[in-house]
Amino acid sequence: MNVQDKPRAPHRTKPPGPPAAPERAAGTAKKKRGTGRLTSVLLGLASAALGLLAWAALAGSGINGFPGPVVVARRAGELIADGTLFEDAGASLKRVLIGYVLGVALAIPVGFVMGWYPVVRRLIEPWLQFFRMVPPLAIIPLAIVLMGIDETPKIFVIFLASFLSCVVSTFQGVVAVDVTLVNAARVLGARDPQVFLGVVVPASTPFILVGMRIGLGASWATVVAAELIAAQGGLGYRMQQAQVYYDLPTIFVQLIAIGAIGLAMDRLLLLAERRLTHWQERR
């Protein structure tokens, strides 16, 4: 038989091996993220359940007039049914959003200018720190005397609270930018606008978002105090009216509404922070 006619061995395909290292790492990271989210949800539900149990135990301990979860839930249903809760929440939310947005919109450019130009920083920072030591709540009487009792003084003190919180955080973010990164960008030929937009703004974004979250909490605290003093509607106003008649269930409903709305807004900011700073390492 000719050598060329010799039968050949059948071709064997190589069994598929394990996935490449990057694919395994991506799959592991995705699995960890899913497990972490499930764990966070379960822990949140457990925390809520424990809080309700502690609340019910405190209400059943005999404290005079302290309402339990069932009584407060019943009162919340009544306020929702007649539309009072939605009207009050809408009035407070409108004031917070207007003052907060105006404060943040002004605080970010002012903080950038203070951090980028040392001369401006030395001129403005002493006044900024001075007004930071004055609580916005202390300005409410002055604002009412000068601006009246309509919406203007309430929005002004909310604006002031959010501005002072956010401008300091923005300023610190610009100052904390690594000088090595700035010098490296300039060595590569970048001009000041390019350095500012390409290095300073991304590096200071986490600081800005933290300041926005702090300013949001300060805004809610301020609007409630402003409504307690002079308002014709809002969650704080309803609490003040309930306090006159010793209506503790209504006060609890307003407190829960304030916390729930504030928490929802804070979660939205936290989501934006994770999207905008996805490059940042997290624990």
Write the layout of secondary structure elements.
Blueprint: H1 21-59, H2 69-81, H3 84-116, H4 118-132, H5 136-147, H6 151-175, H7 179-187, H8 192-229, H9 235-244, H10 248-276
Structural overview:
The chain is mostly helical and 283 residues long. It has ten helices and no strands. Helix 6 packs antiparallel against helix 8 (192-229), helix 7 packs antiparallel against helix 8 and helix 8 (192-229) runs parallel beside helix 9. The model has no long low-confidence stretch (mean pLDDT 82).
Labels describing this entry:
283 residues; mainly alpha
Quick structural gist:
The chain is mainly alpha-helical. 79% of the residues lie in helices and 0% in strands.
Unreliable spans: none
Give the strand content. Answer: under 5%
Main beta sheet, described? none
Intertermini distance: 72 Å
Extended strand count? 0
Number of helices: 10
Helix content: over 70%
Shape: flat
H and E order: HHHHHHHHHH
Overall average pLDDT:
82
Question: Strand pairing plus helix content: what structural class?
Answer: mainly alpha
Q: If you compute it from the alpha carbons, what radius of gyration comes out, rounded to the nearest whole angstrom?
A: 28 Å
